[in-house]
Amino acid sequence: MIEKNVVVRNEEGLHTRPANQFVKLVKQFASEVVIAKNGAEAPGKSLLKIMKLGVVQGDTVVLRCEGSDEQHAMEALEEILS
Protein backbone atom coordinates (compact mmCIF):
# COMPACT_ATOMS: atom_id res chain seq x y z
CA MET A 1 0.00 0.00 0.00
CA ILE A 2 1.15 3.50 -0.85
CA GLU A 3 -0.21 6.57 0.92
CA LYS A 4 0.64 10.12 -0.02
CA ASN A 5 -0.49 13.65 0.83
CA VAL A 6 -1.24 15.57 -2.36
CA VAL A 7 -2.03 19.28 -2.71
CA VAL A 8 -4.79 19.81 -5.29
CA ARG A 9 -3.62 22.41 -7.78
CA ASN A 10 -6.42 21.95 -10.30
CA GLU A 11 -8.38 25.24 -10.52
CA GLU A 12 -11.73 23.44 -10.24
CA GLY A 13 -10.67 21.15 -7.40
CA LEU A 14 -12.66 17.92 -7.69
CA HIS A 15 -15.98 19.23 -8.94
CA THR A 16 -18.01 17.40 -11.57
CA ARG A 17 -15.73 17.33 -14.62
CA PRO A 18 -12.37 16.83 -12.86
CA ALA A 19 -13.88 14.31 -10.44
CA ASN A 20 -15.29 12.36 -13.39
CA GLN A 21 -11.85 12.34 -15.04
CA PHE A 22 -10.35 11.15 -11.75
CA VAL A 23 -12.86 8.26 -11.51
CA LYS A 24 -12.27 7.23 -15.13
CA LEU A 25 -8.53 7.14 -14.49
CA VAL A 26 -8.95 5.10 -11.29
CA LYS A 27 -11.02 2.54 -13.20
CA GLN A 28 -8.07 1.90 -15.54
CA PHE A 29 -6.05 0.41 -12.68
CA ALA A 30 -6.42 -2.86 -10.81
CA SER A 31 -5.44 -1.22 -7.51
CA GLU A 32 -7.98 -0.07 -4.95
CA VAL A 33 -7.86 3.70 -4.52
CA VAL A 34 -9.17 5.78 -1.63
CA ILE A 35 -9.12 9.57 -1.44
CA ALA A 36 -9.52 11.31 1.92
CA LYS A 37 -9.94 14.88 3.15
CA ASN A 38 -10.22 15.95 6.80
CA GLY A 39 -10.88 12.39 7.96
CA ALA A 40 -13.65 11.72 5.42
CA GLU A 41 -12.90 9.05 2.83
CA ALA A 42 -14.28 8.13 -0.57
CA PRO A 43 -13.57 5.18 -2.84
CA GLY A 44 -11.77 6.28 -5.98
CA LYS A 45 -14.45 4.75 -8.19
CA SER A 46 -17.37 6.67 -6.64
CA LEU A 47 -18.03 10.01 -8.34
CA LEU A 48 -20.71 11.11 -5.88
CA LYS A 49 -18.71 10.26 -2.77
CA ILE A 50 -15.66 12.07 -4.15
CA MET A 51 -17.74 15.16 -4.89
CA LYS A 52 -19.17 15.05 -1.34
CA LEU A 53 -15.63 15.52 0.00
CA GLY A 54 -15.78 19.11 -1.32
CA VAL A 55 -12.19 19.20 -2.53
CA VAL A 56 -11.18 22.65 -3.80
CA GLN A 57 -7.96 24.11 -5.15
CA GLY A 58 -5.29 24.27 -2.45
CA ASP A 59 -6.74 21.44 -0.33
CA THR A 60 -4.44 18.64 0.79
CA VAL A 61 -5.91 15.18 0.25
CA VAL A 62 -4.58 11.76 1.18
CA LEU A 63 -4.37 9.25 -1.67
CA ARG A 64 -4.08 5.55 -0.85
CA CYS A 65 -3.42 2.96 -3.53
CA GLU A 66 -3.18 -0.76 -2.89
CA GLY A 67 -2.69 -3.43 -5.51
CA SER A 68 -0.47 -4.79 -8.23
CA ASP A 69 -0.14 -1.47 -10.08
CA GLU A 70 -0.26 0.86 -7.08
CA GLN A 71 2.88 2.81 -8.04
CA HIS A 72 1.59 3.58 -11.56
CA ALA A 73 -1.84 4.48 -10.18
CA MET A 74 -0.36 6.87 -7.62
CA GLU A 75 1.78 8.64 -10.22
CA ALA A 76 -1.13 9.07 -12.65
CA LEU A 77 -3.53 10.29 -9.95
CA GLU A 78 -1.00 12.74 -8.55
CA GLU A 79 -0.58 14.18 -12.02
CA ILE A 80 -4.31 14.66 -12.60
CA LEU A 81 -4.67 16.53 -9.27
CA SER A 82 -1.78 18.88 -10.06
What does it look like?
- With 82 residues, this protein is an alpha+beta fold.
- It has a single domain (2-81), classed as Histidine-containing Protein, Chain: A.
- The chain has three helices and four strands.
- It has a four-stranded antiparallel β-sheet with strand order 1-4-2-3, with helices on one face.
- α1 packs antiparallel against α3 (70-81).
- The longest helix has 12 residues, at 70-81.
Strand order of the largest sheet: 1-4-2-3
- CATH-level-4 superfamily name: HPr-like
Helix content: 25-40%
Shape, principal axes of CA atoms: globular
Topology as a string of helices (H) and strands (E): EHEEHEH
CATH class type: Alpha Beta
- What is the SS-derived class? alpha+beta
Can you tell me the residue ranges where pLDDT is under 50 for at least 5 consecutive residues? none
Q: Say what the CATH topology is.
A: Histidine-containing Protein, Chain: A
Q: Mind telling me the C-alpha Rg? A: 11 Å
Number of folding domains? Answer: 1
TL;DR?
The chain has about 80 residues and is α+β, with helices and mostly antiparallel strands.
Topology:
Layout: E1 2-7, H1 16-26, E2 32-37, E3 40-43, H2 47-52, E4 60-66, H3 70-81
Antiparallel strand pairs: 1-4, 2-3, 2-4
Based on the model shown, name its key terms.
four-stranded antiparallel β-sheet, alpha+beta, 82 residues, 4 strands, 3 helices, 35% helix, 28% strand, single chain, Histidine-containing Protein, Chain: A
